[in-house]
Amino acid sequence: MTEVDKSTSSVIAGDFTPYLEAIRNDRISFTRCSTCQTWIWPPTNYCPRCKENSVTWVTLPEGTGGTVFSFIIVRHTTIPEFKDLLPYVLGIVSVDGTDIRLIGRVLCVTDDVAIGDGLAPSFEGERDDPVINWNLARQRTR
Q1: pLDDT digit string (tens) for 98-115?
Q2: DSSP for 93-135, written as a single string
Q3: Count of structural domains, the chain
Q4: Which domain range does residue 41 map to?
């Protein structure tokens, strides 16, 4: 994997600002240890693996996608804002080039998704709370 952009500023534990700013710019950004190359999520200011505090923000290459690790089809909700979305797919997504998994909506017909399907990010960055949804990019052979 090619690292595109590294921040030289120190990482503040629990500060998701660089992650949210990346989404607003249609990108994905995570923290990574510069010493042992461990991906770290959620962001902390030290590496839980090697205990160094050489953690930086890394912006993934444009077009980085993911793979469906697991999913559920949500058919009922008690949250009024989600009722118009039913049914929808909520997935655990393995982000390509990292060992990080994110939870997000998979935008597809509920019967079309399967574990192992490739996903492309769909950024919703116009809002105060930007999110990454995922579109089916490639389906595994069944």
Answers
A1: 999 999 999 998 899 999
A2: EEETTSS-EEEEEEES-GGG--TT-EEEEEEE-SSSS-EEEEE
A3: 2
A4: 5-59
